[in-house]
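dumping this here before i forget
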Amino acid sequence: MSTVLTNFDTWKQFLADKVQHAKQIGMDDEAISSLAFEIGSFLDQKVDPKNEEQRVLKELWDAGDDSERKVLARLMLKLVQKA
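structure:
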């Protein structure tokens, strides 16, 4: 199994790399946030959490409405960009 899915630090680095690439090709923050929301929705529906951090994120995602999920997606982006 890929360490991207099983190791949260690896997942954060993977996401940070993808955000950096998106910025390099000219995507603005709003477009990146929108894409993060779509990816979060996909992961919620299709991927079983592989570690405790992912389980907490899924529980938060499931507890929120779309507005709160968008905030969570933006917070994840902030988290990986500060590293």
